[in-house]
Amino acid sequence: MKIGDLARRSGLSAHTLRYYERIGLLPYADRDRAGRRDYDASILTWIAFLGRLKATGMPISEMLRYATLRAQGTPTGPERRQVLERHREQVRHRIAEFQSCLLVLDSKIAGYAGAHTEMQDDADPTLTRPTLTRKPVRARAASPRRD
Questions:
Q1: With contact defined as beta carbons under 8 Å apart, do 40 and 9 qualify?
Q2: Virtual CA dihedral for 14, 15, 17, 21, nearest 10 degrees?
Q3: Helix crossing, 3-10 with 43-55: angle to 10°?
Q4: DSSP state, 26?
Q5: What is the reported pTM?
Q6: What's the rounded Cα separation, in Å, for the pair 4 and 28?
Q7: What percent of the chain has pLDDT over 90?
Q8: Which of 31, 35, 39, 33 is nearest to 8 (CA)?
Q9: For the chain, first and last CA: distance in Å?
Q10: Per-residue pLDDT of the chain (147 residues; tens, 9 = 90+)
């Protein structure tokens, strides 16, 4: 398949595909008689995997390391596994951080939902609430401009 077809099917631009090939993330494509890249459809699986690595935050340098090991074949399987296991731990750590952030967001949202309910309750004259005794904040007087 030509680079335009691969770009459409993979969701990557032709520029990105050429860049990935140039830095070694993608194997060099065969060329047709006119010298244009001619990709095998199986490259789509590899591109999808690279997309997952990227989406989970793997740096390009680690992706390149993995791609290099992959190109060396079966004997590098244990090393590739180690790369993926380390990355999996980093992903798990980030997921835990995101879950913690979600709890804070949920708490904030619930607080705003409660404030909204209080505002609606204030509109109901049958409900009595204590009034605030705090003085309003006064605006600071503007100082004269010095030009």
A1: no
A2: 140
A3: 50
A4: S
A5: 0.70
A6: 16
A7: 68
A8: 39
A9: 67
A10: 999 999 999 999 999 999 999 999 999 888 989 989 999 999 999 999 999 999 999 999 999 999 999 999 999 999 999 999 999 999 999 999 999 999 999 999 999 888 765 555 555 555 555 555 555 556 566 566 655
CA dist 10 → 4, 34, 116 (Å): 10, 23, 45
Determine the Cα–Cα distance for residues 53 and 19; give it in Å rounded to an integer.
Answer: 17
Tokens of 71: 């190109």
| Burial annotation 100-115 (CB, 10 A radius, 16+ → b, else e) | eeeeeeeeeeeeeeee
Residue with tokens 């680690």: 62
- Residue bearing tokens 């140039």: 22
Q: Say if residues 39 and 6 touch (Cβ distance below 8 Å).
A: yes
The torsion region of residue 8 among left (phi > 0), alpha (psi -120 to 50) and beta comes to: alpha
The amino acid that residue 102 corresponds to is L
